[in-house]
Write a structure and sequence with these properties.
Length: about 425
């Protein structure tokens, strides 16, 4: 089966792309023999986004999200592969739970892998999983603080043991670097907190200390560490200074790039997230980190909760919000505004992610790679209307935002899965 996509912009040039048996077979201005022709009428093609940071929540929290709704949201958002985070019910901490997740993930419409939680109590279970050389495990996930019912690790010797496993099995450790003790210190200082205190309570110092700690340990041990949702200017500096001394990778989210805490007055707990939305100066530092290569990837931290839970008082409202359907529209709008090049967007959303997590034959549009592709209409205007989301979490801190440039279709292994316009 051969499908040719014609009249499509790839790397800034109008070209044709031939898909044969799910793989990219040809890119150029010629028109090799085909069975089906799809005229993309001047739209842009980028490698399908790989999102390494998604909380799917199937099995016991299907009222929040399941694999079908999450993957529908991924397709609508132009994402062709996602990694499931482990801090759900039941948590991905052993082979039994991983197998349960494997069962329900068959519903997924997009490619997926699993990040496995590492805690003080499951290191043998993690080794048991890794000894089977699983192709569907992307990374280990370590939390240094509580955030949505996860077990966290404070003990340095345990962190070192986790890094030893990471080195031995060649898997990066994705780290939520906010430190629990530090958060508790700031929590004790505020009576009757509201979401306006969230950035103070989960203080920047807590993320900075954790990021510094894990980079120093990674320097010693030599494993790869991936700092999830980097949110402060100081973290960017620490990572920048250590890029050539440790195997350290840096993820940012769209909300830490594009929002500052002043928005919380308007949107309340809908914008409650860990780590918190920070300041305009932090936004700028993250953009500089993108420009100079300190930042490697963009992950959504898609963390769906129910609106009824989010509308509780600050202390009860869970942290997190959906991100799969907003990430590419928001970033493509930045490309249109001249704040980001398309080449950089591709690096951050797929090429670097594929390299860091060793995803073979994905992350670039080239012959021999799988035809996981996102079709972009750079002229299409959008307004974020959460009621229309495919995720079950129909709210967003970006509600009512408007912009230009959005994904209108994806190919997964060469099959067209959605068309918006
Ligand atoms: O805001 C967050 N929500 N941060 C996390 O680290 C976890 C996530 C969730 O699972 O809800
Ligand atoms: Zn997360």
């Amino acid at each position: 089966m051969k499908t040719i996509l014609t009249n499509v912009i790839i790397n800034g040039k109008t070209q044709n792309l031939l898909i044969e048996d799910g793989l990219i077979a040809y890119i150029g201005t010629e028109k090799p023999a085909y069975d089906t022709l799809i005229d993309l009428e001047g739209k842009t093609l980028i490698p399908g986004m790989i999102d390494p940071h998604v909380h799917v929540r199937d099995l016991e929290q299907t009222d929040k999200e399941d694999w079908f709704s999450a993957s529908q949201a991924a397709i609508a958002g132009g994402i062709t592969m996602l990694f499931d985070m482990p801090n759900n019910k039941p948590p991905t901490v052993n082979l039994k739970n991983l197998n349960l997740k494997r069962g329900v993930a068959r519903k997924s419409l997009v490619h997926y892998k699993f990040n496995i939680a590492v805690t003080e109590h499951n290191l043998d279970d993690v080794k048991e999983i890794l000894d089977t050389k699983p192709e569907d495990v992307s990374a280990l996930k370590l939390f240094l603080a509580g955030s949505s019912a996860n077990e966290y690790v404070e003990d340095i010797d345990t962190i070192k043991q986790i890094f030893d496993i990471s080195l031995q099995y060649g898997l990066p450790v994705i780290i939520h670097t906010e430190q629990q003790k530090c958060i508790e210190k700031y929590q004790a200082k505020i009576q009757n907190p509201s979401v306006l205190d969230h950035n103070y309570i989960r203080n920047r110092e807590c993320a900075n200390l954790g990021t510094e700690l894990v980079i120093n340990l990674a320097k010693e041990i030599g494993n790869a560490v991936y700092i999830a949702h980097t949110s402060t200017a100081e973290e960017i500096d620490i990572i920048r200074q250590n890029k050539d001394k440790a195997r350290v990778y840096c993820e940012v989210t769209p909300h830490h790039l594009l929002l500052d805490e002043s928005i919380l007055k308007r949107i309340g707990n809908s914008g409650k997230v860990n780590p918190p939305i920070r300041t305009k100066a932090d936004n700028q530092a993250l953009w500089l980190g993108i420009a100079d290569g300190t930042v490697d990837t963009i992950g959504t931290d898609h963390a769906p909760h129910k609106i009824s839970e989010k509308s509780q008082a600050y202390n009860q409202a869970p942290s997190g919000f959906p991100g799969l359907e907003t990430v590419l529209p928001l970033l493509l709008n930045e490309v249109n505004k001249g704040n980001l090049s398309m080449a950089k967007l591709v690096e951050l959303t797929s090429t670097n992610t594929a390299k860091i997590f060793k995803i073979d034959k994905r992350g670039a549009i080239k012959p021999g790679n799988y035809a996981d592709l996102t079709v972009i209409d750079m002229n299409k205007q959008w307004k974020i209307e959460p009621k229309k989301f495919m995720t079950k979490a129909k709210y967003s801190p970006f509600a009512e935002f408007e912009g230009i440039g959005m994904p209108v279709g994806v190919f997964i292994n060469g099959e067209l899965r959605m068309e918006n316009g």
